Amino acid sequence: MNQAKIGSFISECRRNKGLTQAQLAEKLNITDRAVSKWETGRAMPDSSIMLKLCEILEITVNDLLSGEVVTVDNYNKELENKLLQIVEQKQQADKRLLTIEIVTGVLCVGILLALCIVVSCVQMEEWLRILLAVIGSVPILLATPFMLKIEQTAGYYECAKCGNKYVPTYKSVFLSMHMGRTRYMKCPKCKQKSWNKKVISKE
Fold first, then answer.
1. Coil/strand/helix, residue 52
2. What does the radius of gyration of the chain's CA atoms come to, in whole angstroms?
3. 3-state helix, strand, coil in the chain (%, to 5)
4. pLDDT by residue for the chain (203 residues), tens digit each?
5. Residue 72, pLDDT score
6. pLDDT tens, residue by residue, 36-64
7. Contact between residue 183 and residue 148 where contact means Cβ atoms under 8 Å apart
8. Quick check: helix, strand or coil at residue 178?
9. Is 107 left (phi over 0), alpha (psi -120 to 50) or beta?
């Protein structure tokens, strides 16, 4: 979405209605500073007031998000473009989540290895040795469910048998054998077990 274009469109619609920024803000129960931010492209209207804003300006949400009045002729094209943008945003978010998963895993393993080295190389009492080993295990134990949730929901798994791309259940991810992000799971479509690889897109 082009925030600058949307901002200019809001400004134009507001002026066409004979409203000042302060008057529009008053109708929406917000500050005129917020309206100014929209119109300069520095911010977007919050979803909670978007419908009310469109009602006041007598435009559709589709018009607002397009930054122009959408005619019947190009409605389908605009809708298709928005759907493509949503898909692209999801893919970018999934990539960020998978990067977070890697960083979290590396940090947890790094902490565990560092404490294991300390425990094996430094002279200390047995109880302290056990305590450090336990402390080293805590981050990875706490982070594992979080990392598995990312594994489950970010992107898709592609069946090696039929090519179906799907989001598995948390249980199937938790119980499956894996090599990196490739997991041995049953495909919900063909019902066959195979090594399903992680992919970002359904295309």
1. helix
2. 26
3. 65, 10, 25
4. 688 999 999 999 999 999 999 999 999 999 999 999 999 999 888 888 889 999 999 998 888 888 888 776 666 666 767 777 777 888 888 899 899 999 999 999 999 899 888 888 888 888 888 898 889 889 889 999 999 999 898 989 999 999 999 999 999 999 999 998 899 999 999 999 999 999 988 76
5. 64
6. 999 999 988 888 888 999 999 999 888 88
7. no
8. strand
9. alpha
Residue showing tokens 């080295």 = 117
Cite the beta strand spans of the chain per DSSP E: 156-158, 165-166, 177-179, 182-186, 193-199
What tokens were used for 162? 């039929």
Tokens 């200019």 identify what position?
A: 8
For residue 196, the 8-state DSSP code is E
What φ, ψ does residue 195 adopt, rounded to 5°? -80, 105
Which tokens sit at 49?
């007031």
Joined together, the tokens standing for residue 191 give 């019902």
Structure tokens at 114: 């560092």
CB atoms near residue 6 (< 10 Å)? 21
Residue 61 token pair: 């949400």
183 bridge partner residues:
178, 196
